[in-house]
Amino acid sequence: MDPDRLERARRDADRHDWGQALSGWRELAPDGPSTADLSTEDQITWGITEFLSGHPDQAVRALQSAHHRQIEHGAVEAALHSAFLLATIFDLRGQSSMFQGWLGRAERQLALIESPSDAAVVGRGFLAMLELRRALGAGRFDQMGPLADEIAEIGHRQQQPDLIAMGVLSQGRLNIYGGDVARGLAQLDEALSGVWAAEVSPLVAGVVLCTAIEGCQEVGAVDRLCQWSDGLSTWCADQPGLAVFTGAAALHHGQTLILRGEWDAGLAALTAASERYLSLGQHGSAGVAERERGDLLRLRGRLEEAKAAYQGALTHGCDPHPGLALLWLAEGRADDAAVAVRRLLEELVIPAQRGRVLPAAIDVLLAVDDTTYAEGLAQELDLLAEVTDCAPIAATAARVHAQVELARGDAAGAVPYARKAMHLWSDTDAPFEVARARLVLADALTAVGDVQSGQHERQEATARCEALGAVLPADVSSPAGTRGSGGLTPREVEVLTLVAGGASNRAIATELVLSERTVARHLSNIFGKLGVTSRTAATHQAHQHHLVARPGR
Q1: Number of Cβ atoms within 10 Å of the Cβ of 331
Q2: Which of 8, 41, 82, 545 is deepest in the core (most CB within 10 A)?
């Protein structure tokens, strides 16, 4: 074996040039990593190089060879680490039975150690990381806290950076789930500090980065999402030949681009993320990217493409709701949408996870006039905003409260909520969300009689949506066949039809099985969208723009 080539391969791996390192290892030993001329440490480095370069099967062969050699030589403590690497690779690929198999093997090997050494303690730390992952998959949250504490404690005591990062990261996620969001986010910051300082090994660093980003997404910590997503992209770019984690980098980069209003680039990034995940066999993550694509395509009014993306998410094992429910609402299937979001809300019990679903669920429930349920969810979002102290959640809570107030017929009460939402989203630099808040404000202002101000807000919102290539939210939630120039919802078209036929509010309420207050709210919205102030003017607009059928036709 050429010692110069061996040294070069080691050096390339040390500086995280995975492309050069992979070529070096393969040229060094054409017959594969099981050659007797390589040390066990070199076999492990080769295996990690193969995995990070996007060759998981070759990585498994290299690491299995190293593990068997460690067992043969009686290095059981070291074998716990190679077992951890193998189980982690299978977990990232969604191969749960293989993950369970290596976890079980590691547990048995640790039990055989009679005299615990420092190395065995560290090995126990890696085993605990696998046990924590198993507990998460089984929903055993009662087991996760003690395991996270044990990992962090071993990491600090043994000065092992991977264990410190994973232990503190897990503590942070659990605190977020438990409602102590501020402390949880601070722990995610601490876990990432080891990554930014290049103290954590590359494979664990990638896991820590992606897990931390998912954690801040769940609670709407947009500032951290943007910073960490940029950090993940840079971290990937600094490692030539890196394949694993580049799908996550594209996904989170796309999410930040969309938030900032760069929708074309965001859509391209989501497509790239889906393709990268699939090329690496990470189907569950590809499903998440497809769900995000579906959401953006729906907001652009490209409903058939959105439907295909949601189907892709479903195929890869990712629940496409609540985006798919909003698409059904756009198709006029309001009852189906309501059933789906109610089911989803029953399934999700962790507040941080419910936060992603609540705004869409409120939109759907208001569309089917379930104002009471929607109001309760808005209050739940209030509580989440309070415990997270995150401006985007507070902004969303304000917007849905304004919608609920409008639904209850209290337009004056809706105005300050809508203004608050608009200002908070403006500070976050999220143009589409600003436009959504403006539309709600426009409806509220019109309903209280300030028609000119309402029209001004609507014009501003329309201009922002046009700049983004977005369909007005009111138009998205209207079925294609009934979508008019005013963007009326299906229920509003029904109400307008009866108004045009001369029905009173009481008669409309009886006909549609609604309260008179709800009818008044629908009328307020109709007036705002059509830019009128009377039933006569609304009827004229309805006939002039063919929003309703003329009597006798």
Answers
A1: 18
A2: 82
